[in-house]
């Protein structure tokens, strides 16, 4: 290929003929580890603390495109994903709605100007990696294999510009239940000082830069006796609720007609489009439409899911009126985490004022318990629903 076929696009970048080679599962090479690790007892697993024997790796070069992918013995570590594999009733590993994770990873990579990739090919490669390391999936209820696909820019030159080189890797970690003794209500500090995301930013993408700035506020919240941060966004004189830590948020509010509103903040560019979030909205709609029955919820109890903004002031009012029944945070790791209290601290010179949520035996309210159990039943193969689970073969 002659140099005349390439043109400079600034900052040392070259743009050439397209399409460049994409991810190609047919070129996969597998190098198995000569010494396999001993499997730890599932009860000893700490989230993200144990890695399996192998990882998936591919690199991108602006001249030659994506390299042949490799499954090779694991070595330790940007945009990334979080997903899980489970053991189905037939003993085969299965993934929960993986196409959504692949689509979100592609959107996040595009937002950071990282090289594009074939999402179908990456999913096929991830399945092959899981098959290689499937012995690491704990065959116990509530346990799974956490999957972390990651793309990092590897351009060697200095300068503030997009990376035209990248490394894609996928690592696996067996994990147990987020709450080992069952879901416990968590406490949240809603402090006005810190913002997780803002309009026009990267809040709707799963990028590393969204998470590190939350570490210090989390420490501050912990010193005040709270488990996590409830992120707010000021809109005029209102404080809108956005996310809890790294999780999406739902509330359950009584309606005048006896039904229940299930409300979560809208995808306005500051909210991550979580797979668990989307699944809960879909399940609530299906229950109300009579297409399935959520466990423990009467078929006569209608749930009306809404994606709309609500504020700390709204929550305070609904609590005073006895209408706010539940609040819970959701995500891949915890599935559903009930919220017991929210401390609101608008004036940082004054102590937070607690909003106390209704308490339920076992921690979870009726709606949060129902959607959590249904999602876990689907993930582990006890319930088949809408093709959400995909076998790894």
Outline:
Its cofactor is pyridoxal 5'-phosphate. The modification N6-(pyridoxal phosphate)lysine is found at residue 206. By secondary structure, the protein is of the alpha+beta class.
Characterization of this structure:
It is an enzyme of class 2 (transferase). One of its GO terms (biological process) is L-valine biosynthetic process. This is Branched-chain-amino-acid aminotransferase. There is one protein chain. The protein has 2 domains: 7-175, D-amino Acid Aminotransferase, Chain A, domain 1; 186-380, D-amino Acid Aminotransferase, subunit A, domain 2 (D-amino Acid Aminotransferase, Chain A, domain 2). Strands 3, 4, 5, 6, 7, 8, 9, 10, 11 and 21 form a 10-stranded mixed beta sheet that branches. Residues 9-13 have low confidence and may be disordered. Helix 1 (98-111) crosses helix 2 (119-132). The longest helix is centred in the N-terminal third of the chain and has 14 residues, at 98-111. Strand 1 (7-10) and strand 2 form a beta hairpin. The protein has helices at 98-111, 119-132, 215-223, 275-288, 312-320, 366-379, and strands at residues 7-10, 13-15, 29-30, 54-61, 65-66, 70-73, 79-80, 83-87, 93-96, 144-153, 166-175, 186-191, 228-235, 238-244, 248-254, 260-264, 303-307, 324-331, 335-345, 353-356, 389-391. By secondary structure, it is of the alpha+beta class.
């Amino acid at each position: 290929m002659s140099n005349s076929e390439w043109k400079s696009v600034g900052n040392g970048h070259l743009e050439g003929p397209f399409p460049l080679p994409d991810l190609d599962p047919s070129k996969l090479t597998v190098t198995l580890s000569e010494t396999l690790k001993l499997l730890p007892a599932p009860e000893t697993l700490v989230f993200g603390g144990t890695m399996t024997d192998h990882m998936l790796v591919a690199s991108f070069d602006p001249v030659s495109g994506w390299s042949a992918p490799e499954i090779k013995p694991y070595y330790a570590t940007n945009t990334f994903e979080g997903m899980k594999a489970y053991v189905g009733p037939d003993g085969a590993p299965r993934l929960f709605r993986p196409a959504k994770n692949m689509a979100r990873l592609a959107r996040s990579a595009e937002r950071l100007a990282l090289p594009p990739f074939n999402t179908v090919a990456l999913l096929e490669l991830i399945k092959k990696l899981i098959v290689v390391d499937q012995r690491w999936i704990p065959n116990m209820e509530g346990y799974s294999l956490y999957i972390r696909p990651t793309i990092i820019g590897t351009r060697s030159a200095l300068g503030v510009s997009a990376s035209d080189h990248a490394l894609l890797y996928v690592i696996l970690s067996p994990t147990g239940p987020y709450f080992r003794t069952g879901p416990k209500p968590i406490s949240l500090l809603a402090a006005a000082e810190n913002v997780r995301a803002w309009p026009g930013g990267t809040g709707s993408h799963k990028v590393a830069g969204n998470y590190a700035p939350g570490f210090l506020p989390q420490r501050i919240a912990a010193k005040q006796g709270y488990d996590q941060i409830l992120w707010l966004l000021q809109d005029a004189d209102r404080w809108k609720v956005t996310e809890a830590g790294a999780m999406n948020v739902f509330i359950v509010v009584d309606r005048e007609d006896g039904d229940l509103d299930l409300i979560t903040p809208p995808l306005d560019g500051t909210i991550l489009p979580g797979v668990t979030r989307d699944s809960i909205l879909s399940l609530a709609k299906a229950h109300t439409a009579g297409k399935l029955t959520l466990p423990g919820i009467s078929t006569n109890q209608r749930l009306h899911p809404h994606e709309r903004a609500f504020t700390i002031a709204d929550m305070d009012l609904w609590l005073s009126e006895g209408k706010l029944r539940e609040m819970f945070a959701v995500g891949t790791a915890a599935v559903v985490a009930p919220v017991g209290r929210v401390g609101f601290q608008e004036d940082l010179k004054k102590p937070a004022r607690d909003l106390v949520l209704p308490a339920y035996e076992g921690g979870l309210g009726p709606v949060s318990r129902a959607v959590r159990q249904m999602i876990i039943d689907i993930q582990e193969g006890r319930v088949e629903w809408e093709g959400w689970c995909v076998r790894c073969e």
